[in-house]
Specification:
Number of strands: 22
Distance between the termini: 83 Å
Structural class: alpha+beta
Strand content: 15-25%
Shape: elongated
Radius of gyration: 35 Å
Helix content: 25-40%
Amino acid sequence: MTNPGHALIIANDRYSDQGLKQLKAPAQDATALAGVLHDPQIGDFEVDVLRNAPADTMRRRVQGFFSDRRRDDTLVLHFSCHGLKSESGELYFAASDTEPRLLDATAIPAQFVRGCMSRTRAGRTVLFLDCCYGGAFSRGSASVRATGDVNVLESFTRDRPPGGRGWAVITASNSMEFAFEGDELAENAAPRPSVFTHAVVQGLETGEADLDADGEVSLDDLYEYVFEHVQEQNPNQTPSKTVEMQGELHLAHNRRGRIKIAAHPSPPSLLAAVHSDNAFTRQGAVLELRSRLHNESLPLAEGARQALEEVASNDIRQIADEACRALRDIRLAPSVDRLDFGLVPKGSPLQEKSVTMNGPPLARHCVAQPTQPWLRVEPTANGFTVRVDTNAEGRLSGDVTLKGVADEAVVHVEAVVGPASESEPSDDTTGTSHGAAQDRDTVVVEPSGGRPAGRTTAATGRNSAQGTGDGPGRTGPQPGRAALPSHRASALAGAALALAATAAVTVVLSIQGIVAAALERSGQGGDLDHYVHRHGVLPLLTVTLITAVLALVAGAFARRDLETLDRRDAEPAVHGTRSMTSVAKGLAVPALIMAVIVLIGYLIAAPQA
């Protein structure tokens, strides 16, 4: 959830009126629910808890909670208490001093809560009702146990909030049982309220409520999870909801799980090649899987990733290494791993920097989660923006964690929030914003190739317009410094390929020479060493050995540079350089092996000739 969130939890388990049964769960439920909603890695709400308060205090807190809100605010109001129905059919929430005979004066009418919801300026409001319902009758009336169902949601759907604001009401149970005998609420009249709230807490805390495994717990996800959990625990209790809201509301992050994508299986012919007994066939299958790994279709790319994971774990070293190199293409590649906002004025508008993700679509498909309450993260088309709440004074340090299909990454964020008079512009070249609240000295780094990965796509970095300089405090690579290793890697790869080709040619010539020398000796007789020198075999072998070794060394240095280019260079350049190093290795290694074999054979055969 990226918009500001505010929650008010009202829990009443002690009542002065003897007719209202003391409840056991609300106190514990309020503490647990407040914990998960406030956790910056889960709900990141500002939470207020009100326990066992009288009716007058409850009315003040509820009205104050809905007042003075902004359009982008999300409000969550949670009631855990007795719910009472008057003789006229109105719903009330019981306070600690509620008297069933005087509900208008001593309880909170549902109509009052509904009115506060309809008048608030907040864009979205969610009301959770975890109440034990019963009917209230006047003292002295006939002792009657009348039962019947009344739709609790009707109390909140009569007057819908104006102005297109979104709202939702979710109840632990959608029926009220009239189970009073005189003024006393029967012991068996209400289900345990903890079943509902416990399910809400468990679903958010464990991440199990993230049913679609997109890294976010939406309102629909949470309701479906709670409904199944409550029904499993108590089949007689049926949670219900009513929603009037455009779009999807994310209530919390799933801090435990990674992104999960339903994989599209690779074709049977390709899978057969992966498991072939022929090593060259399996190596070709890895190249095809690597190509599919970059596909725009995330399910197709995920299927290729899973197949490559199997190859990397089970195949011979040479092919497993190729699979590992392919999998490195989809590592989370934020354009920066550190954002420094510098000195910003306290109370100024939210300071903002953008972050982008590099790599193919599967590498850009991730969720960004802040670890501190002063951090705000909002997805964008190519990544996300990081905002700093300037109301928290002092030196701030926190992280934005990125979770993808295969790995995790972290973008470290720092800021110093001080009085406005101390916030002077700085001449440093780290790319941080200083001075005026609207100063955003950043440049978006576009990811190379592919489309954004949807609403859970996260991106991690906006490079400074001034570059970075050396050292751990940099916020992005300087173009000049990025170009140097790129050209060097390409040059080394080209040199490796040329040397490897030379080694391949000379080893073939040396083999031809040794064969010709052996044929001449068999026809004319004499010393084998004489014919070997005559055909120049030894110089050719020497050239083969030297060029093959140099090709492998140059290729190793080129691959080392590629490791630094994966996160910031264009994909075509990286793939072209990697292809040259692979071909060079494929030529140099066999040439080196053949040259050594020929040389050893000659050294053994020459003395005996």
